[in-house]
Design brief:
mainly beta; six-stranded antiparallel beta sheet; 9 helices; 72 strands; extended; transmembrane helix; membrane
């Protein structure tokens, strides 16, 4: 019992000591130092600089770990252990923080253990573990250098749990991961050869590379080997990993904005719950699962959105499912700018590898933006089989910028040795080109095939006739490789190549015939006996032999060049001959052309001949002569160019003579290929025209470094003594690439030959200076230019009227410096104001920031009076003070523009403008318009606003109001209007809406205006060549909706109608044209018809679209007080205005004869004969009354005075009489009976103002003397 108590006491004391020791180690700094010093002594490579805190909350600084090949340096370590570690067999870490970690792994670091692990297959993992719970792990500024690969991590915050058979990574956040990969090195070949001597590299024939061996090697290799079986003893769970700002730097820089991963590995299965990646070009999102045993079944879904510049976003949907070691399926759908559907079915087992690939797309194009040289629509591609036996089919509609619309159809079959092309067709709307052949690579690359051409139009007309096989081009040949001693790459070359082609088809709507042959042999000799091409009467003949010596002969006989190129006309003939060795080839040219015409350029005759010898010196002599060269109003009688010499020394002479100018230039030059420099001199520069002669006073030196793209001009000057001592001087600078030019007393009339005929200059530029420095690195240049002139006259002709603009003084300054452009000007127009300003554009390669001022002081618009019609005048003063800002893409304008004291007197505007004032206030990207126009009666006020914050979508809105503005169109119209209109304008639309009130108006219309009728629908306009002119459509569609309100004081007098109008009309305009809708009522008035003044009882004019075709509904009656028997008689007018219907009616109802009698005479018919005479006489009188204007016009045409036609007499003796004055005092009259055949001729001569002598010849003859009395 005593020993038991002693043992129990000893055990208790020992336990207390152990617990105290553990508490000392955990809770004291010295205890932690004891633990860590023990660790550093046992691990010699470990070193810790300072230790602070406890194991429960400790901080370590300066932690180093160095072993051969590995160096780890940690600036700071902060950890917090939990007391739970003492109670459970687990390592509880509340927090672990590592800051500024540098890890360096040398190239000598051994990796044998890793290599041994990779070589092992189907091994099982035996992992010993100790439970670890890490609540928070924080890493900051981690830098890892592995050989030539660098990894940098800005921060990582997360947590982990390591428990039996399970590893869990809690929600983590990673930011700023950068991986720097080594760049691929490319070997540069420094090969320097003589520029003049062309050396043939020594080559020798290699053994042919058999393509079938490559295919057999691929066939022996199994694409998918036996897949390993993974036995993972633990489950891995990634709750959420969020990464930001990932960069991979190597040959290419890849940036990823965000990455989100959620995944689980359990029971040898990977479950990818979510994978989301955001990168600069778009985003990718995926999910799915895969099993790591058996046939490895999988199923993954992917969705991606890719953004391209100037293109629609590309949406990609992909689904990969099946078995990796079995049947695998892939479906991919693209929708956006590119639309495609890709299907892949693959059997990757060694027992039978079968692949099925299908591609369908409605449109494909390349490149993805900009001009599209290649476009493919309705693409359908299928690959079926394996490398032993496969088939291919392709169909697509091709087109592009320079490719016509054609259809491609291809079908083929192949195996390990060859590919058989069953069909390869290019089909257009008129022709079909077909190729059938075979390509074999068993021993070397050989091919043979046939080309066929079909004319669809001809074949449809003659479907029975089929082209013969012997009439189609046939091609054959082989391909082998040679090895170059300098370049070790394989170079493929042809061997025993041949082609025979007789072709008869049509091209550019003209018959095309080609026949000839070409053949090569194993030595490399190429022989073309003859190739003839005939297109629309133009013939090209080619004969040549290629071996060690070259002999090529080309004969051209083209009488109709318009059959070759659309827009080109004329004829050309000549020869081109090349012969000699490749190192010393001689080219002879002799070409002639007549009556050439290309658009607006015409050449009567042109001749080109010369020779070029490509030896060490490259000798050449070329002569070009052109006669009668004309473009628009410019005519050159002849142009001569002569070039002769070698590379080291050559001379170029140009002679030009026009109708009013002669020029001669001589250039002597030399080329130094080693220095990449051409230098020359101009000893003779001569130019003469009607204004005088210009001649260089010294030699002009020229330097051009073509590799550096630098051009320089030496000191020179051009004198023109005959016109105000005009002088052009070029000053040389010490810096190569600088150009300085000075001008003195230059007569601007010399530039008139380059100006349009409607604009001519006169005056003198006093001084001018330019200093330009070329920049070979950018497209911009630095320099300044200034021009000063006095009394400059600009004569501008507009529609036959000359507008002289006289500049009293003129100054211009332009400068480019430091990526900035500055432009200043000042122009003083004599008696018409001053224009001056300053514009500066900085950052020309970037934002192009705009800054400047625009000013106009007292500019008179009376300058435009010269182009107005006689009697029209315009006046006004413009003052403008604007300040510019923003950029060229988004300009801003501040300030105001004022037009004051403006007046305009013209017959085109139906109102006389007495004075007007317009003020525009600019506020950056908007402007406000305020204006007042005063007329002789009434005022018009308008307000407006313009917004150009988006240059491609600017908008303008102007409202117009007024108060009883008098409009006059003499002699037919006077009216007062009250406008309330709104005008809106945009880049693609013009809109006019509003109301116009007419309270008072007077219309007087005797004849129909010429513009009231529409143009005939079959109208055809012809140009000067009597060819139809295509109708022009409106560039900007105009839409208008106007409402016209006619008041109670509007009176119309037109075509016998006089009445008061009232109603509402609506005018619309759209793509279909102008339309008029509404109704006008005639409230009260009279209508003159049948020689009677009728009272309007009912009057309506209805418009339903057409302006000149209103519907009429008018009733007019005779005055009942002048009608007997209480009968009301009148006329009804109904129908369209171009086809009205007149109807005579009476109340009570009468016969038509009686109703007409009541309407014309106011009484009914009594006796048949007398009333018949009366009605006939009345109708004739009505007809003659309506024909008075026509008779008067006839009199003016035949130049007789007072020509008239009237009725005289009564009853059955009534006559129609025509009278006129053939002389001032001699009148002639001729009458004929209406109811008999009696004729009467009367001559009356005026003897005195009141005394007449009259002679009558008819049934009775008489001579009378008449005297006129006045009472």
């Amino acid at each position: 019992m005593k020993w038991f108590k002693k043992g129990l006491t000893f055990f208790f004391i020992l336990s207390v000591l152990i617990l105290c020791f553990i508490a000392f180690l955990v809770n004291t700094t010295n205890g932690m130092k004891l633990v860590l010093h023990t660790a550093t002594k046992s691990i010699s490579a470990l070193h810790i600089s300072t230790i602070n805190g406890t194991l429960h909350d400790g901080v370590l600084t300066g932690v180093l770990y160095n072993t051969p090949g590995i160096s780890i340096n940690i600036d700071k370590v902060h950890f917090k252990l939990s007391y739970k570690c003492l109670m459970h067999k687990k390592l509880y870490v509340n927090e672990l923080m590592l800051k500024k970690v540098n890890i360096l792994i040398d190239n000598n670091w051994p990796s044998l253990q890793i290599a041994n692990l990779i070589k092992q297959k189907n091994y099982k993992y035996n992992i010993s573990y100790y439970p670890v719970i890490l609540k928070k792990l924080a890493l900051y500024k981690i830098n890892i250098q592995i050989k030539k690969t660098g990894i940098y991590l800005a921060s990582f915050i997360g947590g982990a749990k390591w428990q039996p058979h399970e590893l869990t990574l809690t929600s983590s956040h990673m930011q700023g991961l950068t991986v720097s990969l080594p760049k691929t090195k490319t070997k540069k070949l420094n090969i320097q050869e003589s520029i003049y001597n062309i050396k043939k590299p020594s080559i020798h024939l290699l053994s042919c590379i058999y393509i079938n061996k490559i295919i057999q090697t691929l066939q022996k290799q199994i694409l998918i080997q036996d897949l390993p079986i993974f036995h993972l003893p633990v489950h891995i769970k990634l709750m959420t990993i969020f990464c930001e700002n990932l960069h991979f730097i190597g040959d290419h820089h890849i940036s990823i904005y965000k990455v989100l991963i959620k995944a689980t590995i359990k029971n040898q299965k990977l479950y990818l719950k979510n994978l989301a990646v955001n990168f600069p070009g778009g985003m990718v999102q995926s999910y799915g699962h895969i099993t790591f045993h058996g046939t490895w079944p999988l199923n993954f879904m992917l969705h991606s959105i890719i953004h391209r510049n100037k293109l629609q976003p590309e949406n990609i949907y992909a689904n990969l499912n099946g078995d990796v070691y079995g049947h695998l399926k892939l479906k991919c759908k693209l929708s956006g700018s590119i639309q495609a559907l890709v299907s892949l079915n693959a059997q990757l087992t060694p027992s039978g590898e079968q692949i099925y690939i299908q591609l369908q797309s409605s449109k494909l194009f390349w490149p993805l933006y900009g001009a599209i040289p290649l476009r493919a629509n309705n693409v359908h591609f299928i690959f079926r089989g394996n490398l032993h036996d496969y088939s291919i089919s392709l169909s697509a509609d091709l087109g592009g910028q320079y490719i016509p619309s054609i259809m491609l159809i291809a079908n083929g079959e192949g195996n390990a040795d060859e590919l058989v092309i069953k069909t390869l067709q290019l089909k257009s709307s008129k022709n079909i080109t077909e190729f059938k052949g075979k390509i074999n690579w068993k021993k070397s690359m050989n091919w043979c095939g046939e080309l066929r051409f079909f004319d669809i139009a001809r074949d449809k007309q003659n479907p029975i006739t089929a082209p013969s096989l012997s009439q189609e081009p046939m091609t054959y040949g082989s391909l082998y490789t040679r090895k170059n001693k300098i370049f070790k790459d394989q170079i493929w070359q042809t061997k025993n190549l041949g082609i025979y082609f007789p072709i008869t088809r049509s091209l550019l709507h003209h018959p095309l015939k080609i026949y000839g042959s070409l053949s090569t042999d194993s030595v490399g000799q190429c022989h073309i006996p003859v190739i003839k091409l005939n297109l629309g009467g133009n013939t090209i003949t080619i004969k040549c032999i290629f071996n060690k010596q070259v002999n090529v002969y080309v004969h051209i006989n083209a009488k109709y060049l318009e059959h070759f190129v659309t827009g080109l006309s004329g004829g050309a003939h000549g020869d081109i001959h090349a012969q000699g060795d490749l190192t010393k080839l001689r080219l002879l040219i002799n070409l002639n052309a007549n009556h050439l015409k290309w658009h607006k350029v015409q050449i009567v005759h042109m001749k080109l001949n010369g020779s070029i010898i490509t030896n060490n010196k490259i000798q050449s002599e070329i002569n070009l002569y052109a006669e009668k060269l004309k473009q628009n109003n410019m005519l050159i009688n002849f142009f001569k160019l002569h070039a002769i010499g070698t590379v080291k020394k050559h001379i170029l002479t140009i002679n030009l003579q026009g109708n009013h100018a002669v020029s001669q230039i001589t250039i002597q030059g030399s080329l130094d290929p080693i220095a990449g420099r051409w230098s020359g001199t101009c000893p003779n520069v001569y130019f003469s025209n009607t204004l005088g002669t210009w001649r260089s006073s010294n030699n002009i030196t020229l330097d051009y470094l073509y590799e550096k793209q630098i051009f320089g001009i030496g000191p020179s000057s051009v004198d023109k003594p005959k016109i105000a001592s005009s002088r052009l001087k070029i000053i040389k600078s010490n810096t190569f690439g600088d150009l300085k030019i000075s001008l003195n007393h230059v007569n601007l009339a010399i530039f008139n030959m380059f100006m349009p005929v409607t604009t001519q200059l006169s005056g003198t530029l006093n001084t001018g200076y330019a200093h330009i420095t070329l920049n070979r690195h950018t497209l911009l240049f630095n320099g300044t230019m200034s021009v000063i002139g006095n009394h400059i006259i600009i004569n501008h002709n507009v529609t036959g009227h000359n507008i002289p603009i006289i500049l009293n003084s003129f100054q211009v300054y332009l400068a480019f410096k430091n990526n900035c452009m500055q432009f200043k000007w000042r122009a003083s127009i004599i008696h018409n104001g001053v224009l001056y300003g300053n514009i500066q554009v900085s950052d020309l390669n970037g934002e192009r920031i705009l800054l400047g001022d625009l000013n106009v002081d007292s500019l008179s618009i009376g300058l435009l009076n010269a182009i107005l019609m006689p009697g029209e005048t315009i006046s006004g003063i413009i003052n403008t003070h604007l300040h510019l800002g923003g950029s060229l893409k988004k300009p801003q304008v501040f300030g105001n523009m004022l037009l004051s004291n403006a007046s305009f007197d013209t017959g085109f505007i139906p109102m006389k403008l007495s004075t007007a004032k317009v003020d525009i206030l600019f506020n950056g990207v908007t402007s406000n318009l305020r204006g007042v126009m005063k007329t002789e009666q009434g005022t018009i006020i308008f307000h407006g606003i313009t917004d150009w914050s988006q240059l491609n979508n600017w908008h303008t809105r102007i409202s117009v109001t007024g108060n009883r503005v008098r409009c006059t169109v003499p002699p037919i119209l006077k009216m007062d209007i009250i406008p309330d209109l709104t005008f809106e304008a945009a880049p693609k639309s013009l809109t006019l809406v509003g109301d116009i009130y007419i309270p008072w108006a007077r219309f007087l219309l005797q004849t129909a205006p010429l513009t009231i009728s529409r143009v005939s629908s079959d109208e055809i306009l012809l140009d000067s060549d009597l060819k139809p002119i295509a109708p022009r459509s409106m560039t900007i569609p105009i839409s208008s909706r106007l409402r016209i309100h006619i008041g109670n004081d509007v009176i119309l007098k037109a075509f016998g109608l006089q009445g008061k109008l009232h109603g509402n009309l609506k005018i619309t305009q759209n793509k279909k044209g102008l339309g008029l809708y509404g109704q006008i009522k005639i409230l009260a008035g009279r209508f003159h018809a049948y020689a009677q003044d009728l009272t309007i009882r009912k009057g309506e004019l209805q418009f339903s679209g057409l302006i000149d075709q209103p519907y009429l509904n008018i009733e007019a009656i005779r005055n009942p007080e002048s009608t007997t028997d209480d009968v009301v008689a009148g006329v009804k007018i109904t129908g369209l205005a171009n086809d009205p219907k007149f109807e005579v009616f009476s109340d009570p109802e009468q016969t038509q004869e009686s109703a007409l009698s009541y309407l014309l005479r106011g009484q009914k018919l009594t006796s048949a004969s007398n009333d018949s005479y009366a009605l006939t006489s009345t109708l004739i009188s009505i007809g003659l009354a309506h024909s008075e204007s026509i008779i008067s016009k006839i009199g003016k045409i035949v130049r007789v005075k007072n020509l008239s036609m009237a009725t005289i007499g009564a009853g059955d003796k009534q006559q129609v009489q025509v009278s006129a004055y053939i002389l001032p005092s001699l009148q002639i009259k001729y009458g004929f009976g209406i109811f008999d055949t009696l004729e009467t001729l009367t001559l009356r001569c005026q003897l005195m103002p009141k005394l007449y002598l009259e002679a009558i010849y008819g049934l009775d003859q008489a001579i009378d003397i008449l005297y006129q009395f006045e009472f």
